[in-house]
């Protein structure tokens, strides 16, 4: 039986956003007495804001200041965050076969507001952010929330992401996990159900389960 629901992470999975993230962080972090290497930013890229701050050794009481600085720099620089090639075709084909698609991300509402909703967000049956479910991955609750809201069973669902936290969250939610390897991910996955090297691979698996 085909999957009834395919959920996606955003950064590094649907959207090629690392370059924008790197440039933004390199612009704002000197004000927080930090000058991380590109390798360090690769590690923090898929983290929740709290884990990111801990990794970068930024005090917890600077969270609001960091978020405001990130938002200002994002709007000022207007970095492009393009979709990976093949994403729109993948979403269209999944929906054509009546498979629901959705997003579960550690981004905040204000952060995804910078993305053009007409490009892909309006295609989603559900979009779950850290504002709606304030328990970032690897906590399974954001995934469980999406599944419950759409009335789908965990075994009928697939989560696609590019980070180890995505895999851990999926396994804890009893959801199959596919590692998105078409981007820049160097995550040490444990045992994903699938390895996806191109978005079209998701279509093949979703329809053939």
Describe the overall structure.
With 209 residues, the chain is of the alpha/beta class. 40% of the residues lie in helices and 12% in strands. It is built from nine helices and six strands. The chain has helices at 18-28, 38-44, 49-56, 63-77, 87-96, 109-112, 141-150, 164-172, 199-208; strands at 5-8, 100-104, 126-128, 157-161, 176-180, 194-196. Strands 3-2-1-4-5-6 form a six-stranded parallel beta sheet, sandwiched between helices. Helix 6 (109-112) links the parallel strand 2 (100-104) and strand 3. Helix 1 packs across helix 4 (63-77) and helix 5 (87-96) runs parallel beside helix 9 (199-208). The radius of gyration is 17 Å and the shape is globular. The mean pLDDT is 92.
SSE blueprint:
Layout: E1 5-8, H1 18-28, H2 38-44, H3 49-56, H4 63-77, H5 87-96, E2 100-104, H6 109-112, E3 126-128, H7 141-150, E4 157-161, H8 164-172, E5 176-180, E6 194-196, H9 199-208
Parallel strand pairs: 1-2, 1-4, 2-3, 4-5, 5-6
How far do the termini sit from each other? 5 Å
What is the averaged pLDDT score? Answer: 92
Q: SS-based structural class?
A: alpha/beta
Into which percent range does the helicity of residues fall? 40-55%
Gross geometry:
globular
Strand tally is 6
């Amino acid at each position: 039986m085909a999957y009834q629901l395919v959920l996606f992470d955003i950064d590094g999975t649907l959207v090629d956003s690392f370059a924008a993230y790197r440039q933004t962080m390199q612009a704002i972090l000197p004000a927080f007495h930090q000058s991380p290497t590109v390798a360090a930013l690769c590690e923090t890229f898929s983290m929740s804001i709290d884990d990111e701050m801990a990794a970068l050794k930024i005090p917890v009481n600077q969270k609001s200041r960091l978020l405001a600085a990130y938002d200002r720099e994002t709007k000022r620089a207007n970095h492009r965050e393009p979709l990976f090639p093949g994403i729109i075709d993948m979403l269209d084909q999944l929906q054509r076969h009546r498979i629901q698609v959705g997003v579960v991300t550690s981004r905040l509402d204000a952060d995804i507001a910078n993305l053009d909703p007409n490009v892909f967000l309006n295609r989603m049956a559900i979009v779950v952010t850290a504002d709606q479910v304030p328990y970032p991955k690897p906590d399974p609750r954001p995934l469980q929330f999406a599944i419950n809201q759409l009335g789908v069973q965990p075994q009928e669902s697939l989560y696609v992401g590019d980070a180890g936290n995505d895999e851990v969250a999926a396994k804890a939610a009893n959801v199959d996990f596919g590692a998105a390897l078409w981007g820049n991910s160097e995550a040490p996955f444990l045992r994903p159900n699938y390895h996806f090297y191109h978005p079209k691979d998701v279509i093949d698996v979703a329809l053939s389960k």
